[in-house]
Write a structure and sequence with these properties.
The protein has a single domain, classed as Imidazole glycerol phosphate dehydratase, domain 1 (Ribosomal Protein S5, domain 2). 34% of the residues lie in helices and 30% in strands. Strands 1-2-4-3 form a four-stranded mixed sheet, covered by helices on one side. Strands 5-6-10-7 form a four-stranded mixed sheet, covered by helices on one side. The protein has a two-stranded antiparallel sheet with strand order 8-9. β5 and β6 form a beta hairpin. The mean pLDDT is 97.
């Protein structure tokens, strides 16, 4: 069973082509025009053992917001499409990602209900030219469009680069755990019979 998706989304602000293979090897080819964001998406794929390709042409002459958020929308759409009816998946995933002084927890549920909560200390921070406040916007867009519950908790940390990087790595690892197939699961892992 192939668990892959290809998404194309064009608006007046962005033109995005994204492909995702949940059962990949962690290979990534990412070109969004936002260097730090490219690095984060590459780490997400590597640590989540998913193959990811992203090409985004966005209105960076305005700012990075539309590109970052719209890539999150497309990633969420791709996760939902690749999972299909969610037969046999684990459903829940969590991961702790340490990076020097920083420790971030990601917990998620592929429940079919979208919710996002975080306490990442990214307000008014820039990592190079990257506005760190856009990281939660990316995660919110991904959670909404994948229809998942997504929680990111910063247990420690001071350096903005470390905080955002740990969050992306933890997200990749938690998503890998939740999307794994478990031969003990019959149908979908829900008493309702659907997710």
């Amino acid at each position: 069973m192939s668990r892959e998706a290809q998404i194309q989304r064009r608006t007046a602000e962005t033109d995005i082509r994204l492909s995702l293979n949940l059962d990949g090897a962690g290979e990534a080819e990412v070109r969004t025009g936002v260097g730090f964001f490219d690095h984060m998406l590459t780490l997400f794929a590597r640590h989540g053992l998913m193959d990811l390709s992203v090409v985004c042409e966005g209105d960076l002459h305005i700012d990075q917001h539309h590109s970052v958020e719209d890539v999150g929308i497309c990633l969420g759409m791709a996760i939902a499409e690749a999972l299909g009816d969610k037969q046999g998946i684990v459903r829940y995933g969590h991961a702790l990602a340490p990076m020097d002084e920083t420790l971030v927890l990601c917990a998620l549920d592929l429940s079919g209900r979208s919710f996002f909560a975080h306490d990442l200390d990214v307000s008014k921070r820039f990592i190079g030219a990257f506005d760190a406040e856009l990281a939660p916007e990316f995660f919110r867009a991904a959670a909404d469009n994948a229809r998942m519950n997504l929680h990111l908790r910063q247990l420690s940390g001071e350096n903005g680069h470390h905080i955002v990087e740990a969050a992306f790595k933890a997200f990749g690892r938690a998503l890998d755990a939740a999307t794994r197939l478990d031969e003990r699961v019959t149908g979908v892992p829900s008493a309702k019979g659907t997710l």
